[in-house]
Known about the structure:
Chain A is α/β, with parallel strands linked by helices. Helices cover 40% and strands 24% of the residues of chain A. Chain A contains 11 helices and 10 strands. Chain B is mainly alpha-helical. Chain B has one domain. Chain B has 9 helices and no strands. Chain B has helices spanning 2-35, 41-51, 56-80, 87-125, 128-134, 139-176, 182-192, 195-221, 226-259. In chain B, helix 4 runs antiparallel to helix 9. Chain B is elongated, with a radius of gyration of 21 Å.
Amino acid sequence: MIKIQGLSKKFNQNLVLDGISLNIPAGQTCVIIGRSGCGKSVLLKHIIGLLRPDSGRVLIEGKEVAKLKELELVALRHKISMVFQGGALFDSMDVEENVGFSLFEHTRLSRKEILERVEESLFLVGLGGIGNLMPSELSGGMKKRVALARAICIRPEIILYDEPTTGVDPITGDSINELIRSLHDKLKVTSLVVTHDMKSAYHIADKVAMMYKGKIILEGTPQEIQASQDPVVHQFINGLSKGPITEIVDDAH
Amino acid sequence: MLDLFFLDLGNKVISFMHFFGGLATLTGQTVYQAFKPPYKYDHIIEQSKKAGYDSLPIVSVVALFIGFIFALQFGYFMQRIGSEMYIASLVALAIVRELGPVITALIVAGRVGAANTAELGSMQVTEQIDALETLATNPVKYLVVPRFVALGIMLPLLTLYADLVGIIGSYLICVLKLGITSSMYINMTFSALIHKDLFTGLFKAWIFGMVIALVSCYEGFNVEGGAAGVGRATTRSVVFSFLLILAADCFITALFYFIFP
């Protein structure tokens, strides 16, 4: 269970998160939608302890992330994985070393056992047999899937996805959505996905939350979100160029 | 107008303090992580090869030219006063105490320090450093400590090598062009040098090595703004390394001159 309570964060004078509260029950997939730059990735970085909040807190299994000691944070990160927007694969290592990184660094498993786990993870994301390729030899979609394989290789309880379908073609995007859904079903992980791809959101979410101006303005099931009469939500989920979101931007200009 | 001047000055002072504060924090974290097991020997060996072995060609060429130039410059004056035999002593002292460590450090700051900043900077902008953290790996231990230890070991060794090559360069000019006998050159070189000279030079090199590693990694970790940011950080890394090497050189020379004469 992930609990976010009154989370706020400022960068210089820019208030990016403004008292966000959200509960994500264990085993569920929650999708956070919102415009680019609205603070979705910043929220993910707070959950995994890469950023510290100005106020508020993130609780995972009842423990406040920002107050964990170094060893406790390391232990927490063995249970949480994050898939970065661009994959964030290590350029200097091949796919095998990237996917097995955590196991090579933090376990006493033999190389043979690690490589078996790596191949198993690559097979799960549909990329068996590419262990010896370097990240520079992979396409954008393959990089995302290798990043996903790296995330699941440690058998995490929670996976955070930062825009997993951005920058890939629609077919690859759909296969990534299928993958997220099947990982959720097979591994029973709790997932938090940030995206502005509504098709992806409807496909994978148990619950959708919409972020706007640093706040969660609406949360509910995909059906509830689709039925929402809120003009901001309506404009965003239907991808309309005219509406309250863009009027405010135009006024500002 | 005056307001703008003071605003700009204030911003520069804050930025300066921010740099030294950040560098001091990184130094503390690096020393702490360096002593904390597990030790990454394979990473240290890899970085030592990049910093030390791969720098040998450029260090050899520069040190040899420095030896040639100093022999000729000292020769020009010493021949006028009939004291050519002291050229060997002067060159040995200048190279071992000062030129060897400083020139080697400047070469390594330009070659290895710049590469460190560019590599870590690229990792920063592509979120690879964040990825390391999420994979429960401390980026300072994984990325900075091997570079810090490798440069701390390799710079004194490279300096020792540069000293030797520089003296050989000077020997060639003196023996082949200035008419000094080989045995006299060798005698004058070793009679001028005492242990302290060599120790001072190698101590400086050790400090310079750590300065280069810390400045280059700090700048790499703090890159902002994509590819252009990596370029700016690499320039800053080389400029700050040069300045800090010369400042540290001045401080250590004064320390040995006044406190441990």
